[in-house]
Design a protein that fits this description.
6-stranded mixed beta sheet; 295 residues
Length: 295
């Protein structure tokens, strides 16, 4: 196995490729509490970008990838063994940014779509850079295609998308048309992941048979070296633990990042009057950008 610190942009941009969530993985399950904490972390990074301060990027967690049986030389496909919740959340946030910009900045909306969400020259399921598990696929595909209007919004995929749409309306500053683009920049270039890539002969599948509550559950901001990997119960994890521990994200960098983030939070602008509702949304909006949610 190989591990390296990477950004979402570096992971998914470039050539056509696909990250497939295996059918036996759990469905998308992030709640508004987790979404609110991530949004808070994103705004911290936006503040650091605006002030130009030099600080370590925010560590989001690990992503474990293995070559898919459907892999092709001209169209790489990866199984997302772990980290599908993070990849799905980031993709939905970018879809929300794309749709938020569709009327005012259609060129930027198209760029976001093609760089992060779709394989432009592919069709059907191959068109999606991230292909969720079967249960989540119809709702996720509808949001990436932009055909979700009028659908029931009770599933977690729709809830996450609508959460980000609300937050983008609240965060938009009419005096600064780049504000939403800074949010995109923070998501794609200030949230770091440790990508662990399996090689031929690596057996990552015992991990999939471990109950979810016993799997590594990296939280945003938690150093990779602290991940509980239960190596004694599953010897293959010793290698993964060592790889993650050797990856970038040392405690010193984490402490430095915390100091800069605290300063950025202290300077954060207070939100103005509550904005109007998102078109088509029956959920009232709250100007709660300054509020914090936890995991």
């Amino acid at each position: 196995m190989q591990a390296k610190e990477t950004l979402f942009a570096d992971l998914v941009q470039g050539r056509a490729q696909q990250f497939q969530v295996p059918l036996y993985q759990r469905t998308y399950s992030w709640t508004e509490k987790q979404l609110a904490q991530l949004w808070s972390d994103i705004l911290d990074q936006v503040d650091l970008l605006e002030t130009g301060e030099k600080a370590s990027a925010h560590f989001l967690g690990s992503v474990v990838l293995a070559p898919s049986p459907q892999n092709e030389a001209t169209f790489p496909r990866w199984l997302v063994v772990d980290g599908q919740q993070r990849l799905t959340t980031i993709s939905l946030a970018l879809a929300a940014i794309r749709d938020h910009l569709a009327q005012s900045r259609p060129d930027e909306a198209e760029r976001i779509d093609e760089e992060y969400l779709i394989n432009k020259r592919k069709n059907e399921n191959d068109r999606f850079r991230l292909l969720p598990t079967q249960a989540d696929r119809p709702n996720y595909a509808a949001h990436i295609r932009g055909t979700h209007e009028g659908q029931a919004a009770g599933d977690n995929v729709s809830v996450a998308y609508r959460f980000f749409r609300r937050k983008l309306v609240e965060a938009e500053d009419p005096a600064d048309p780049q504000d939403v683009l800074r949010i995109e920049q923070a998501i794609t270039s200030r949230l770091t992941l440790v990508a662990v890539t399996a090689e031929a002969g690596d057996n990552v599948h015992p991990h999939l048979r471990v109950p979810q509550q016993h799997r590594p559950q990296a939280q945003p901001g938690r150093p990779a070296a602290q991940l509980p990997l239960h190596a004694a119960a599953h010897p293959w994890r010793t290698g993964l633990r060592d790889v993650l521990a050797a990856a970038p994200g040392q405690p010193e960098q984490q402490r430095a990042r915390t100091t800069h983030v605290a300063a950025a939070r202290a300077r954060r602008r207070r939100p103005g009057p509550p904005p109007g509702p998102v078109r088509g949304s029956a959920t009232p909006l709250r100007a709660d950008r300054g509020q914090r949610g936890g995991h």
